[in-house]
Amino acid sequence: MMAADWGDIYKELGAVPVINATGSVTMLGGSTPIPEVKEAIDKADGAYIPLMELQERAGAAIARMVDVPAAYITSGAGSALMLATAAAMAGDDDDRIQQLPNTDGMRNEILIQTRQRYWYDRCLELAGAKLVMFGSEERTTVEDLEQAIGPNTAAVHYYAVEQSPDLDALSLEDTIAVAHARGVLVTVDAAGQIYPLENFGKYVRMGADFQCIAAKYLGATQSVGLAFGSEEMIRKIGLQAFASYEGRRVRGVGRPQKVDRQEMIGAVAAVRHWMTMNHEDRLADTEQRSRLVLGLISGIPGLRAELIDNVVGHQPYGLNMWVDASVAGFDIYDLRDKLREGDPPIWTRVRDEDDFITIHMFGLNPGEDRIVGERIAALFNKGS
Question: Could you tell me which CATH class the domain 8-30+278-383 is placed in?
Answer without folding.
Answer: alpha beta
